[in-house]
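In practice, a research group might receive sequence data for several interacting partners and want a quick structural hypothesis before committing to experiments. The following worked case mirrors that situation: the sequences arrive first, and a predicted assembly follows.
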Amino acid sequence: MVLSMVGLFSFNAMAHGVDESTRLFLQNNTGVQFFPFMYIGAKHMVTGYDHLLFLAGVIFFLYKSKDILLYVSMFTLGHSLTLLFGVLGDVQVNAYIIDAIIGLSVVYKGFDNLGGFERTLGFSPNAKMAVLIFGLFHGFGLATKLQEFQLAKEGLWENLIAFNIGVELGQFAALTFILLIISFWRKHHSFAQFSTASNTLLMSAGFMLIGFQLTGYFMS
Amino acid sequence: MQHTLSNKALFKSTIIALVIAGIVLISFILPAEYNIDPTGIGAKLGLTALANPGGSATISSNQSDELNTENQQETDIIEVIVPAGRGVEYKFAMAQFKKMEYQWQTDGAALFFDLHGEPEGDTTGYYESYAIATLTEMKGSFTTPFTGVHGWYWKNTSDKPVVVKLTVGGEYSIVGLKK
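A structural hypothesis for the assembly, expressed as tokens:
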């Protein structure tokens, strides 16, 4: 099989580091791809342990469904805004820095749950605002993940909306799961006993995320 | 909110969180993700291997009998090992309009490949593909449309490492494996 081929295909693409099958899929399928984008969004959220850790911290001490709904809505509002704005406006944010800030949000929430701000500042910063603001950063994180795939202009809006719906569905699925575990655990007397340890570990996980991402930043 | 911790307990919690994070980062995460292994624990546990996804390549001979280039320019025989479930790139620096003759074969499994070139000094990630397929062997030649690095990306979707024996001839200098 002798080949002398020059320039049969040429396309812009990122490094080969991008998930190959997803990259090929997106190159071969332009236009509106509603369900695939929804799936990618949901998958990212369910496997995005940094987002999940933050959510777990947020609902740790929320007992009323009304409160849970309110806080999760704040978080959703925040990350939807920056996800849409980030991708549509082609805002390039360094993924390592954003992911380090997401790590910081986990530390923040763990510290807050320990009553750390009450103790050190004498007051607790508005929790709803904090969730909204960190939600904005989480959205930029989602945007950078999506921008790794060269997105076609054609059908961008629809695909973005689909991705965002997927993110919310994934968040809902993960949240249900976290909430189930926490609710069961709350019934048990060990909850109060271990709440300090849990939030200490949550903080620790946040510190790990920060260290991991900042190392990546300085190495890139 | 829970009952507020005492200052001492809060301080203790924060320090414990930092210490655990530090230990886990230095012993496990950094070795596995970035091959940074100050303690040596990562290497002992085999974690640093995760951070070296690249294959390995050896240049076994630079005298090829199989490939007779027209004016006996450089020829090389290179063995590239593509780990299971990984992709590796092997590249050559070439000037514009230079020809490379090549042949390669695997020791069994077919590999997805993308033979392509990247222009010199380009930062956008642009590349031009000359051939894309999934094969066990291929023979051919290409002429470079621009100055830059040109070569193969092989992806091994099987669960065993695959050895590619690549024989090349032409006017090039070896860049080698791209990490």
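Before designing any experiment, note the following. Chain B has a mean pLDDT of 84. The first helix of chain B runs from residue 7 to 34.
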